[in-house]
Write a structure and sequence with these properties.
The chain has 363 residues and is an alpha/beta fold. It folds into 2 domains: 7-140, Response regulator (Rossmann fold, 3-Layer(aba) Sandwich), CATH 3.40.50; 216-348, Histidine kinase-like ATPase, C-terminal domain (Heat Shock Protein 90, 2-Layer Sandwich), CATH 3.30.565. Helices cover 50% and strands 17% of the residues. It has helices at 15-27, 38-46, 64-72, 89-97, 113-182, 186-210, 220-232, 254-274, 316-327, and strands at residues 7-11, 31-35, 52-56, 80-84, 102-105, 218-219, 243-247, 251-252, 283-290, 293-300, 331-334, 341-348. The protein starts with 6 loop residues before the first strand and ends in a 15-residue tail after the last strand. The mean pLDDT is 84.
Length: 363
C-alpha cells in the first residue's frame, strides 16, 4: 500500500460502470485503474503497485472465479472484493471460499460504489492485520530457529569443554598415579594417591557429561560405578577387590555429583587405610532414594572404633568430607550400632531454594 492513496484495480467489462466506479472512488481517496477483462487484470497485477482489487464475475474470456483463482496463485496477492450483478448466493459462497475478502451485488446506476469504498477500506485493513500477524509469526519462527541453533551450538561447545576438561583431569590423575607408583616414601605415595582419587572424582563427572545426552545432569549410579572402578585401578587397588556398589538410578546436577564423588573417594580410601590393618576386607557403597531425599552409605566390617589414630594424619580427608557435605547441605553421621564403620549422609537431590531476606522499612 502506498503512503498517499491506495490503488484499486477494477476488473469489469462494462466501460460505463468502470467510469462511475473510478469517479466515485477517486473522490474517496483512491487511485483507480480500470481494465476490461480477467486477462488484462492479471497482466496489470503482475506489474505490481496494486493495493486492492474489485472483480466482476461475468466477463468474456476468464470469468471472475477463474480470474480469482489465478490471482490467488500469485505470491502475496492483494485483497479482492468480488463484485457482480448476480443474486446467486452460490457464487458469493464460492468466491469467498476461493479467497475473496468480501462480496457485493452491483447495480447499473453505480449506487453500490459507496459500499465498494467501505468494502475496499475494510479489505485493506484486514490485509494489513494479516500481514502484521504473518510478519510476527515469521519473526517468532525465525527467533525460535535462531534459539534452537544457538542451543545446539552451545551444547556442542559444552560437550567439547567437558571432553577437554575430563581428558586434562584424567591426564593429571594418571601423572599422579605414576608418581605415586615410583615414590619410595609411603607418606608421599599416600598423599599422591589421595590427590589422584580426588582429581579422578572430578574427571569422571566431566566424562559422564560429554558422553551423556543431557549436559545438565549426571546419573549417579553410573558415575559411582566408574569412580569405584578408578579406585580399584589405583595404587591401593590390590586392597579393593571387595569394593562393591549398590546404587539406584538417580540423577543430579554436576556440582552435586562432584561433591558426592569426592566424599565417596575420601571415605573409601579411609576404609582402605584403616579398617583392615591385617589385610583387606569388604567395603560397600550404597545410594538409595526416597522421593527427593537421598541416602549415601559407605561401610566396612573392619576394626571400627578400635582403630588407632595415625600420628601422621593431617585431617585433610575429614576437612574435605565436611566441606563437601556442607555443599550438599548434609550431615555426616557414624552409625554407632554397626560393628565396623558405617558412615551415613542424608541430603536432598537438589539444594533447597534460598529464602529471600525480609524487607526492612526505610528509616
Amino acid at each position: 500500500m502506498t503512503d498517499a492513496k491506495p490503488t484499486l484495480l477494477y476488473i469489469d467489462d462494462d466501460e460505463a460502470l468502470g467510469r462511475l466506479v473510478s469517479r466515485g472512488l477517486q473522490r474517496q481517496g483512491f487511485c483507480v485503474e480500470h481494465v476490461l477483462s480477467g486477462e488484462a487484470g492479471l497482466e496489470r497485477l503482475r506489474q505490481g503497485g496494486i493495493d486492492v482489487i474489485a472483480l466482476d464475475q461475468y466477463m468474456p474470456g476468464l470469468d471472475g472465479l477463474e480470474t480469482l483463482e489465478q490471482i490467488q496463485s500469485i505470491p502475496d496477492p492483494p485483497p479482492v472484493v468480488f463484485v457482480t450483478a448476480s443474486q446467486d448466493s452460490k457464487i458469493a459462497v464460492t468466491a469467498l471460499k476461493a479467497g475473496a475478502d468480501d462480496y457485493l451485488v452491483k447495480d447499473a446506476q453505480g449506487e453500490f460504489v459507496p459500499l465498494l469504498q467501505v468494502a475496499a477500506d475494510q479489505a485493506l485493513k484486514q490485509a494489513m492485520v494479516r500481514k502484521a500477524r504473518d510478519d510476527a509469526e515469521a519473526e517468532v519462527r525465525a527467533s525460535r530457529d535462531r534459539y534452537a541453533a544457538l542451543a545446539a551450538e552451545r551444547e556442542v561447545l559444552l560437550r567439547e569443554v567437558n571432553h577437554r576438561v575430563g581428558n586434562s583431569l584424567q591426564i593429571i590423575a594418571s601423572l599422579l598415579h605414576l608418581q605415586a607408583s615410583s615414590s619410595k616414601q609411603e607418606e608421599v605415595k599416600a598423599a599422591l594417591t589421595n590427590a589422584m582419587g580426588r582429581v579422578a572424582a572430578v574427571a569422571q563427572v566431566h566424562r559422564r557429561l560429554y558422553t551423556s545426552h543431557d549436559l545438565k545432569s549426571v546419573m549417579l549410579n553410573q558415575y559411582l560405578e566408574a569412580l569405584l572402578e578408578d579406585l580399584r585401578r589405583s595404587a591401593e587397588g590390590n586392597r579393593m577387590s571387595r569394593l562393591t556398589l549398590s546404587a539406584q538410578p538417580v540423577e543430579t546436577d554436576p556440582d552435586r555429583a562432584v561433591a558426592i564423588g569426592i566424599i565417596v573417594n575420601e571415605l573409601v580410601m579411609n576404609a582402605v587405610k584403616y579398617a583392615y590393618p591385617e589385610g583387606k576386607g569388604p567395603i560397600h557403597v550404597e545410594l538409595k532414594a526416597d522421593g527427593d531425599e537421598l541416602e549415601l552409605v559407605i561401610c566396612d566390617d573392619g576394626v571400627g572404633l578400635n582403630v588407632k589414630a595415625n600420628p601422621q594424619s593431617t585431617g585433610m580427608g575429614q576437612r574435605i568430607v565436611s566441606a563437601m557435605a556442607a555443599k550438599l547441605e548434609a550431615e555426616v553421621e557414624r552409625d554407632p550400632r554397626h560393628a565396623g564403620t558405617r558412615m551415613v549422609l542424608r541430603f536432598r537431590r537438589a539444594n533447597a531454594p534460598a529464602t529471600p531476606a525480609p524487607e526492612t522499612a526505610a528509616p
